[in-house]
């Protein structure tokens, strides 16, 4: 339902924005479609017209986040130093938008349960993210741009774990955790020449 009339697209975006706020505050399981509808300024039946299930709304919220990040930060760039720069830009963007980071962190934690509606999304998301990180570190290794002894696969998994773990620490104490600075430091410890 991406196309359609402009009013319908605007209403759909209003619903997604409201869902992000509600999920960020209460998590997926603690939220309701009625609360999302209320925040979006429409009836429950009106929300169901656009998103017939709670799972459909969650999927749309996650897809919008990925699409926004991908377009804005060109996260599909060819493996190499530019990908590392894009990851740092994403971290900078996240620091400026704590609500989406809180939503992502809360949903990622909830979704470890195999029966969670976002479980498969996060399985795919982490698989793709690790593959992208691995390809970037692998290509940098082939070019001689990694420090001696750096294993591309280990560097990729460690980067993904560090990134998500730092987000949680930063959300807890933003004045004590330099999310972007620590990620930049980690990346530079992997590289022969700093970024």
From TrEMBL:
DNA-binding region: 32-51
Domain HTH tetR-type: 9-69
UniProtKB keywords: DNA-binding, Repressor, Transcription, Transcription regulation
Any Pfam family the entry gives: TetR_N
Gene Ontology molecular function: DNA-binding transcription factor activity; transcription cis-regulatory region binding
Domain of life: Bacteria
UniProt keyword Transcription regulation present: yes
Keyword Repressor (UniProt): yes
PANTHER family: HTH-TYPE TRANSCRIPTIONAL REGULATOR BETI (PTHR30055:SF234), HTH-TYPE TRANSCRIPTIONAL REGULATOR RUTR (PTHR30055)
Protein's name according to its UniProt entry: TetR family transcriptional regulator
Organism annotation: Actinophytocola oryzae
């Amino acid at each position: 339902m991406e196309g359609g009339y402009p009013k319908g697209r605007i209403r759909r975006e209003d619903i997604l924005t409201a869902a992000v706020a509600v999920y960020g505050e209460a998590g997926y399981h603690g939220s309701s479609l009625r609360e999302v509808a209320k925040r979006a300024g429409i009836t429950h039946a009106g929300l169901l017209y656009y998103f017939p299930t709670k799972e459909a709304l969650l999927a749309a919220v996650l897809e919008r986040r990925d699409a926004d990040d991908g377009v804005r930060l060109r996260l599909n760039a060819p493996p190499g130093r530019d990908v590392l720069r894009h990851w740092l830009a994403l971290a900078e963007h996240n620091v400026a938008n704590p609500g989406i980071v809180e939503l992502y962190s809360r949903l990622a934690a909830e979704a470890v349960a195999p029966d969670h509606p976002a479980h498969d999304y996060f399985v795919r998301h982490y698989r793709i993210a690790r593959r992208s990180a691995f390809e970037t570190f692998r290509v940098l290794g082939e070019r001689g741009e990694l420090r001696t002894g750096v294993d591309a696969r280990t560097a990729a998994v460690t980067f993904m774990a560090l990134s998500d773990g730092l987000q949680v620490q930063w959300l807890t104490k933003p004045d004590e955790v330099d999310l972007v600075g620590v990620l930049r430091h980690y990346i530079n410890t992997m590289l022969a020449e700093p970024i």
